[in-house]
Design brief:
Blueprint: H1 12-21, H2 28-31, E1 36-39, E2 44-50, E3 53-57, E4 74-80, E5 84-90, H3 92-95, H4 106-137, E6 140-142, E7 148-151, H5 152-155, E8 161-164, H6 174-187, E9 196-201, H7 203-210, H8 216-224, E10 236-238, E11 241-245, E12 249-251, E13 257-259, E14 265-271, E15 277-281, E16 298-303, E17 310-316, E18 318-322, E19 329-332
Parallel strand pairs: 1-15, 8-19, 9-11
Antiparallel strand pairs: 2-3, 2-4, 5-17, 6-7, 9-14, 10-11, 12-13, 14-19, 15-18, 16-17
Helix pairs in contact: 1-4
């Protein structure tokens, strides 16, 4: 009997295409469309910093002339692109006595089983990527265990802008705090464009913001102009900033949980930029993908001994980066 996994639907190209087509069901930062995907052919990238702005440098053939020496005011760093991977399996019991709804076709049943497993893998990758992207907005790169791989501010000796909103003080002019943030971002765009400024904030920060004596009236007006029964914690605009309560929590590889944004914190950044945020993808660690342009995810399958199952291996090689770190502002409640 022919093993169904020998069919073209289950080769690496087909499985990889399938997982990259599956919907992303996790991630507010992904929904905002901040990080433009960019595939590269190498497992590391070079980043040049000049006047606080980071820029990816292209690779060149070995026989090509070397790039011109940069001035002392520029800094060049090389960053290894991290790898995240996961394994699963399709066992005989998964497909035994199972058929697709309304069909006697066993092949369709196996396809559905594989699709479900691919969706589970995709969800795991998407949660990990959301965690990495939120931290990139804070100027750091962490892996799924919570380990800091890079601190981009420290790497390029760029001082991050921090604003204490002093929301526990009734006399604070919160509007002035907002303008301090927006002016800082506008002054550091340096030719980059943006459409708005967005803030993902913790629950305590949001509560103190909307109940602050200098903000309360504006929030009451905002509520009156929203659909009845809506979630008023999303999209409150004040002082040129859209404030959104963000309660995302992930379970790390260590088993501990971590809030993506602290209760008292705000992660503030520009929206609608062209090149400020990028997500670099390295090629997969396979013979057939050497020196190819990296894709967001790869999947491969392999038979177990005596055909007692099929092992699924999935891999992603992402490096989310903020190419203009000074545009990312850290806010605090106290």
């Amino acid at each position: 009997m022919q093993n169904v996994f020998d069919r073209p639907e289950f080769n690496m190209a087909a499985l990889t295409a399938a997982i990259n087509r599956l919907p992303n069901r996790y991630g507010r930062v992904t929904e905002l469309g901040l990080f433009a995907p960019k595939g590269v052919t190498t497992t590391s990238i070079q980043v040049e910093e000049k006047a606080g702005t980071l820029k990816l440098l292209p690779t060149v053939p070995r026989e090509a002339p070397a790039p011109q020496k940069t001035s002392s005011k520029r800094k060049l760093r090389s960053f290894a692109i991290p790898t995240i991977k996961v394994e699963d399996a399709v066992l005989p019991n998964d497909a035994q006595n199972v058929r697709s709804f309304g069909s006697e076709n066993q092949m369709m049943a196996i396809l559905e089983i594989v699709t479900d497993k691919l969706q589970d893998i995709r969800d795991t990758f998407d949660q990990t990527l959301e965690y990495m992207r939120v931290n990139a907005l804070k100027g750091i790169l962490k892996d799924g265990a919570g380990t800091t791989l890079y601190n981009f501010f420290a790497e390029f000796e760029i001082q991050q802008k921090s604003v204490n909103f002093a929301l526990t003080t009734s006399g604070t002019e919160v509007l002035e705090k907002c303008m301090e943030v927006t002016r800082h971002i506008e002054q550091n765009l340096r030719g980059e464009r943006m459409t708005s400024v967005h803030a993902l904030v913790g629950q305590t920060f949001f509560d103190k913001l909307v109940t602050h004596p200098k903000v309360k009236e504006a929030y009451t007006y905002f509520q009156r102009n929203q659909p009845l029964g809506g979630d008023y914690r999303k999209g409150f605009q004040f002082g040129g900033i859209t404030f959104e309560e963000y309660l995302g929590t992930v379970t790390l590889a260590t088993g501990s949980t971590e809030k993506l944004v602290g209760d008292d914190d705000a992660v503030i950044f520009p929206v609608g930029t062209a090149t400020t945020f990028q997500n670099v993808y390295a090629p997969g660690n396979f013979i057939e993908t050497v020196n190819t342009i990296g894709l967001p995810m790869y999947v491969k399958q392999e038979r177990r001994k005596f055909d007692q199952g099929i092992d699924l291996y999935a891999e992603s090689n992402p490096l989310p980066m903020c190419m203009r770190p000074e545009l990312c502002v850290a806010g605090s409640k106290a």
